[in-house]
Specification:
By secondary structure, the protein is an alpha+beta fold. The protein has eleven helices and seven strands. It has a five-stranded mixed sheet. Strands 1-2 form a two-stranded antiparallel ribbon.
Amino acid sequence: MTSRADTVDSMRLALDSFGATVRSLTPGQWALPSLCPGWTVRDVVVHTTMIESALLGWRPGGANPFDAMPAIARELADLDDGALLDRYDTVAAGRLAELDGLGDEEFEAPSITPVGTATYGRFVRIRVFDVWVHERDIRVALGLPGEDGGPAAELALDEVRSSMGFIVGKKIGMPDGSSLAVDLTGPVEAHLYARVDGRAKVVDALDDPTVTLTTDSLTFMLLACGRIDPEVPIADGRIRWSGDDDLGRRATRNLAFTM
């Protein structure tokens, strides 16, 4: 389990990096398409600012923070790009100050989250994942440089790791008795495993996986989040598979579990 301090540090890295990416944009880049389907770069900035604005000052047990988002979105829509960036910086600083002031007990408090009732700490980890992915929505789409490894990237990957059972069982539809290993070569080096034994579940290791996918961590995350057409990294060799060829082809084309 990721500690409170590690979670807050990762949130700081994610928010600071997102802000730096947005500050690097030229005026004409705000209106360009992002990797998030149907969204411009500005839409991504509005979305990220809106959610953190709704969570600013909120604590588990309070009114549903998502209810405030439509009004916040209307307010942000009236801001020009520079003012929107200023608002993001203010909200991000406020959120980090709040998180720095929370203790372990508050992080373990029951909380609503986008994936159901969990803890407030889990909610923050989901926010790290979301902010990290949305920065790539901007950077990868525009070809901007940046760091795709580090603690925030590792925490974002953990959100996908925890969903590997769903990906294998529901998205790929691997048959009973089969298994999948994913070897990530960097910048986050990791191994993800799932096996279907009556139902698909995440496991710690596999002796002889039915299929092994090998790719870099950024490509894997973009595929898992439905951000890129799998045919592109298949064609250019960024992702490859070994073992059962038919299942390998199916797995590589059906990793997306979130948009």
